[in-house]
Amino acid sequence: MAQGRPGVRVGAHRVLRGAVLLAGLLAFGQPVLAGGFLQGHYPLLKAHEIAAMILATVVLVSLVAALLIWRPGGGPGAPARDQLITLVVIAVQMMLGFSRELIIHVPLGVGVVIMVMKNAESVWRLPLRAPSAAAPDASGLASPAEVDA
Ligand code: HEM
């Protein structure tokens, strides 16, 4: 993991961290907006649609950042895989919303919220910098200064 371009990896990881937080907020707001619409606040359907488009854009940005972490960053490829799967599921979710297939759209929406939250958790758990193998302390573990998580 220490190979590749650390500058690109750390920069892209910072972008990814911000993007997954924003995606989490947007996804969390979707059932609220949909509920408001179902309760009779009809303009909230437009807000639900706009939030869906912003969410898809933010996940696309996350995918690009995650790809840069992998290549040329030299970091793990799992975040890119996760963001790609999430982007495809959100695209399907939006099509189901526009075609009013609520019997699938509502439960899949719950799945999207969980998926986006899990992505955020795993991206924030990933250390920002790879621990240096050069200077372990007496315990053999990296010192806190080496793992800037
Ligand atoms: C989190 C991801 C979600 C995305 C990306 C999404 C996206 C969309 C889109 C694009 C529409 C069409 C809006 C329009 O026609 O103007 C829609 C409609 C709708 N969505 Fe979602 N949605 C999500 C989650 C949810 C959830 C969790 C619920 C319910 C708990 C929900 C309930 C609805 C309802 C009730 C409609 C309106 C259908 C109608 O017009 O009869 N959505 N959604």
Describe it.
The protein is mainly alpha-helical. The chain has one domain.
What attributes does this structure have?
disordered C terminus; mainly alpha; binds protoporphyrin IX containing FE; elongated; 149 residues
Summarize it.
The chain has 149 residues and is mainly alpha-helical. It is built from 4 helices and no strands. The chain is elongated, with a radius of gyration of 18 Å.
Radius of gyration: 18 Å
Please provide the count of β strands. Answer: 0
Written as H for each helix and E for each strand, in order along the chain, the element string is HHHH
Beta-strand residue fraction: under 5%
Provide the structure class. mainly alpha
Helix and strand arrangement:
Blueprint: H1 6-38, H2 44-70, H3 78-98, H4 102-125
Helix pairs in contact: 1-2, 1-4, 2-3, 3-4
The site of protoporphyrin IX containing FE has 24 residues, from α1, α2, α3 and α4.
